[in-house]
Amino acid sequence: MRKIVILYLLCLVWCAGFAQQKINGVVFEAETMEPLIGAAVMVKGTTTGQTTDLDGKFSIMASVGETLSISYLGMVTQDIPVKSGMSDLAVKLVKDAMNIDEVVVVGYGVTRKRDLAGAITSLKTDEIKAGVVTSTAQLLKGRAAGVQVKQNSTEPGGGISIRVRGASSISSNNEPLYVIDGFQTEIGNQINPEDIQSIEILKDAAATAIYGARGANGVVLITTKKGTKGAFNVTYSYNASVKNLQNPWKLMDAQDVMGYNMKVWEDNGSTGNPPYTQEELQYKGAGTDWIDATTRTAMTQTHQFSITGGSDKMTMSISGNYLDDLGVLQNTNFNRFSGRMNMDYKLNDRVRFGSNLYMARSNKNFLNMGTNTTTDNVIYNIFMMSPLTTVTGDDVFGKKGKKPGIFSELNDVDFEDITNNMYITLYGEADILKSLTARVQYTYSNDNEKYQKYYPKSTNVGKANDGLATIWNYKNDKQQLDALLTWHQQFTEKHDVKVVAGTTYTKHIYEQNGMQGFGFSTDEFSFNNMGAAQTVQWINSAREDNTTTSFFARAEYVLNQKYILNASVRADGASNFGPGNKWGYFPSGSVAWQLGDEPFMSFIKPLFYDLKLRASYGVTGNDGIGNYLSQRKFAMTDVYLGGGSIVKGMYPSNPENKDLKWESTSQLDLGIDFSLLDKRIEVNFDYYDKRTKDLLNPISVSSSTGGFQTMTGNNGKIQNRGFELFIKSNNIVNNNFSWNTTFNISRNKNKVLELNQGEARFETVRPQGWYNWEEYAMLKEGYPLSSLYGYVFDGIIQTGETYAAQPGAVPGDPKFKDLDGDGKITINDREVIGDGNPDVILGLGNNFKIYDFDFSFFFDASIGNDLLNLSRVVLEDDNRLIDSKDRWTQHNPSNEIPRNGYKKDSGVKYGSYINSRFVENASYLRLQNVEVGYSLPLKKWGDMYKYVKNLRVFVGAQNLFTITGYTGFNPEVSTNGGKAVSQGLDFSSYPAYRTFNFGAKIIF
């Protein structure tokens, strides 16, 4: 009986050990003993968990032998074994030292900001108030020192270029490399900004050399949002903006036109009939404002929905976004659907794997403008519309007329650009040893673009061709495989060593096909039935592929947490270079010294919190030249054999260049980082000197190459040199009021050091057919890229004046300076009259928080850049500008506006419209964004906080005002997009606008 009783008691004890018990507790911040709201409490290895309430309290069921895991963002996670009888717990979480030092994403890894020896800008998207943005680049604009973000066109989905420390190439790509969660891609600017957690911009060679042949233009690392263990959130946000046109053009209205034409008639002796009858002269209205008549108040809307959460084993983030962006110009718009799913799974304490999936579809409706011909240039045709014509086609005097064709050019054309983007990344990661981690990652991406245009017979082009349709289909397939080993070991407290080594393989396949046809019996098919074309003008198809194999390594060593040494090397082998030059090697090294930690520097404290010196040098490359340029290429053509017989033949289209090799960019960077007043003020300063050699560009060849005059080769050097300064100040920090300021300023000077043995190269332009083709941008040793080149305007030749350098000129003709002093105006009397690059760019932001309100504003500025305003040339010559009323006549001896302008038939025998009078200073200061927000105090509303964690509403404005002396729509525009050698041109650009924003974000 005694044995039975003992056995019974043992069973009770054993069962009690496995029975669940209720555990209550409170989670505090150890330093302040404030309760932590929303801390995650999990039973490790299970899906059981909850978050702490408004008082930091929790209650959870757990069994003896299990482990409670308590975590909170920015705190060290604490694991507590469950013991018998455990009931009330007081858990104190301490701040994570790594979080205090701030972790920064670098190439193929992360590092503490304190241990950085390179030049890196880190931005957290939740700290940026940028208004309603539609692209990654808009988040960056003005916020990163040394990074110029330029909105080349303000149309929906318009081009944006990013330059990190200037342009390094004259014919290759100058855009930075985008790396999204480890995937190297060209679509980084197209992903949904709401999906981004942080952005790091790698600027110096020490940071970028690990990317080798793709690092010369800088690297933008994008980390997308992930799920958080123990925190389940459902988030919805809605943003909207209303766009209002900004029109700086001072054009003639109806009264101006009538008055000017009457004045010309009177100056010519009042011979013949006057341009208007006495009855018509009684009209006192302004007539039609055609810019107003062809534009609209437009709206941009974004909807974002996301679900994030996770357990001890798995975290996940799922999001969907819709963007609808209407343009202020009729029949222009851009919309995008996108979705993302990021998943991370922890198999055990050593093995992890996961996936990232992104899909997007965008549709852009656009119109032709810029340097397109006058019959296919909607902005030019709007400018040329007379204010005496009404929108119905009648004139302001009541005479009947046809509906203006400008509305057909605007609304009847069917132009669209549809793009589908998709990529999926799969990774596996294992801790082979405590200090050694292996990672394998594979990404497949597929980008498809369908570019389609149809000109109906109601348009100029369509009428001339009886309907004209063009279609292009582009497909890009890319695969990337990365294998990586990371060894990180600390030896005592003195030595911290990290080594990263790996390999990357990429394969890229590009395909295109297209055709053009004209002669359609009906416009109903648009571009959807190419078989209906009477004539197929051309058919095209092509396929290209290239592969790259890379090996890389980086070593980081920190001694005594003060002395930092980094070195990296990468070897890239690419199929698109010559046989002897397929491999490029890109080393870098950097050092940093925490000078402020030295005992002999104690005198700087407490003013200085820390002080670090940095220096780096390295080499990066640029492989963005396309495929097969090192090989002999052939093209197809029609060969006429006589008698109406035509066969297809081939002819050489590209000479072979076995010596074609990489562009390489070497860069020296010297920097200093320090913080003041207990880190209240942080300062980063960098000086850099970046030089690119072996420029990829057309070089002259002998006739022995088969009749070719040029081929792609390596010739030339470019220098970019400058400084960057970034300051962040936490001016006031307390519970009810905070204020912080950020400021950055950058100066970059670009110069061509060697090119074409000193011979100049030129870019040409012609605004429309009434003008001659003219050289306007020069590329030459000793000058910056995008040097505007032309004649120096010196007034107007007046009656009775004799100017020996222009013997054939007559009064009223423009006068130009004889720069070479040979007594006559020739093409040798041209010089650099402007620079399309800014001298200085800067950004200034302020953020305030007052109780539950927040307020922010941000300015950006560009100083020293010039624009050749070709729109002004045409508007002035065609008497559309108010200033045209001051045109030279015998009775009005103007010294600014020539008698007949600059067209071919103007009678001007000297100089051209490319002259200093039309080069304008395009410096500007812009209030880029201002925003006021209010977060509802849900924590004070009791039970409401159980269901709604956060609700914020805001109102604001973007581009509220711009201070500039430039007379065109936008001082930031570039008609040639991001082309490095021809910045500084503005012709028929998309209208500028300001926006007024509002929105809300709710988290459940």
Describe the 3D structure.
- The protein is built from 11 helices and 52 strands.
- The chain has 1004 residues and is mostly beta strands.
- It is 8% helix and 49% strand.
Summarize the structure.
With 1004 residues, the protein is mostly beta strands.
Distance between the termini: 61 Å
Strands, total number? 52
- Which regions contain 5 or more consecutive residues with pLDDT less than 50? 3-18
Rounded mean pLDDT score: 89
**What value does the Rg take, in angstroms?**
33 Å
Quick one: biggest sheet?
22 strands, antiparallel, barrel
Helical content (DSSP H or I, runs of 4+): under 10%
Looking at the chains present, what oligomeric state does this protein adopt?
A: single chain
Portion of residues in beta strands equals over 45%
Number of H- or I-type helical stretches = 11
Quick one: overall form?
globular
